[in-house]
Amino acid sequence: MPQPRVRLVVTGDDFGYCPRRNRGVADCFLAGAVSNVSLLVNGAAAGDAADLARRHRIPIGLHANLSEGVPVSQQPGASTLLNKDGFFHGKMGFRRVLQSGQLNLAEVEAELRAQVKRFCELTGHLPSHMDGHQHVHVLPEVRDVFAQVLSDFGIPFTRVPVEPGLHACPSVPPHLHEFYSQVEKDALASVEVFRRHGIRWPDVYLGLTTMGGNMSLTSLKRALGYALEAKLPPGERLTAPPRNSRTGIATPDTDRPTTAELMVHPGYPSRPGQGGCGQGPDDFSQSEDRQHELETLKDPDLLDFYKQRGIHLCTFSDL
């Protein structure tokens, strides 16, 4: 069998969010369109997701959540992780509390450890990888706690969301482009922290420019083109892109396959009041965008493209 040009981990995020999400992700896996999933252990259907993963032998990691819904840990007294209603502060609210200096990092650590333990209770094993819901794991200070937790549990892989081609993508609206640019900046600053703790990640990250309605065969092929064109230095296996590179692509050439992760969010639309992480499903989960991703990922033309271009779908453990 010829050597693949790209070893691609296609990760279905938000597994456990609701039963319809779980069924869509599992359908994608069974169709050969997703090779790996990330579990929200505080999701309303986390137990169902773990059962599906066990039944179908779906490779599964932890989607650590500090921003949506309710916590897993039972921390005494008022927690800086929570708002007055007892929920996490939200994607931007969490960032505001962190920037204000009011976030207790000991509480962050306790919650992350509780989520790893809950994952083990649900699945019977440690996660093969651990990333952050809404990219909270690369935020200042949080990244240090996150890396220490991964190191302590011996979880070897994470995600560094620096996407080549992001700044040249015309389909990303300005407000998302601003958010993604900040995510990229935080991710690049996380490289040395993760490296110092012996944590690894694929050579190329993809998925910001292909979310929801932006996912199409054309956009996926465009994004995958960066992985196909990547030239990586000898001996640099699963390491970070250079910190002075906006593309994450390094030189010179080598014969080994490029490793890449494609973040996706397939599923069937959530029904009102069913699912979520303690507050019900959000608008994106109830939209047709989830099913649009599912159908695009299962498209035979995309699966043929993988074969034609030497893109081999795999898991983090395979790397």
Automatic annotation (TrEMBL):
Lineage: Eukaryota, Metazoa, Chordata, Craniata, Vertebrata
GO molecular function, one term: metal ion binding
Keyword Hydrolase: yes
Ranges annotated as biased composition (Basic and acidic residues): 287-296
Tree of life domain: Eukaryota
Protein name (record): Carbohydrate deacetylase
Source species of the chain: Denticeps clupeoides
Pfam family, one: YdjC
Described function: Probably catalyzes the deacetylation of acetylated carbohydrates an important step in the degradation of oligosaccharides.
Keywords annotated in UniProt: Carbohydrate metabolism, Hydrolase, Magnesium, Metal-binding
Protein family membership: Belongs to the YdjC deacetylase family.
A single GO BP: carbohydrate metabolic process
Underlying gene: YDJC
The keyword Chaperone is assigned to this record: no
Region annotated Disordered, chain positions: 235-296
InterPro entries named in the record: Glyco_hydro/deAcase_b/a-brl, YdjC-like
Cofactor: Mg(2+)
